[in-house]
Write a structure and sequence with these properties.
The protein is of the alpha+beta class and 120 residues long. Helix content is 37%, strand content 10%. The chain has a domain of 51 residues. The protein has a two-stranded antiparallel sheet.
Length: 120
């Protein structure tokens, strides 16, 4: 990782971030630049911990950048405040196909408009 706030003129960034380089507001001071290889490595290492857990509002203290101890976290025991998300299946492909067929039947019969075949 390369910290851009040390020498902003030396490293190039995308045009989207170019305005932030000119802005001395301090909003850009903690920006870090990663290569795609480093990003993939980081993502691979943190994804088992971040993708399957939910943090309740107030868990992270944004100003201090630390995990905030909350009363609800102590009530349920150790780490039970970060509950795993449940995988809920979406509508099956059979139901989706039925909806699509019903729409197709309607728009080729009763719901048909005179100009609809001009744009197909």
């Amino acid at each position: 990782m390369v910290s851009l706030n040390r020498n902003r003129g030396r490293y190039s960034v995308t045009p989207i971030l170019a305005d932030l380089l000119k802005e001395p507001s301090g909003c850009f001071e903690n920006f870090c630049r990663l290569s795609s290889h480093d990003f993939e490595y980081l993502l691979k290492n943190i994804s088992p911990y971040s993708c399957s857990t939910y943090s309740h509002l107030g868990t992270v203290d944004i100003e201090e950048e630390i995990l905030a101890p909350c009363s609800w976290g102590h009530e349920q025991g150790n780490m039970s405040s970060l509950l795993p998300l449940q995988n809920i299946p979406r509508k099956s492909s059979y139901e989706t196909k039925n909806f699509r067929d019903e729409f197709a039947e309607y728009f080729t019969a009763v719901g048909k408009v005179a100009w609809q075949h001009n744009y197909s």
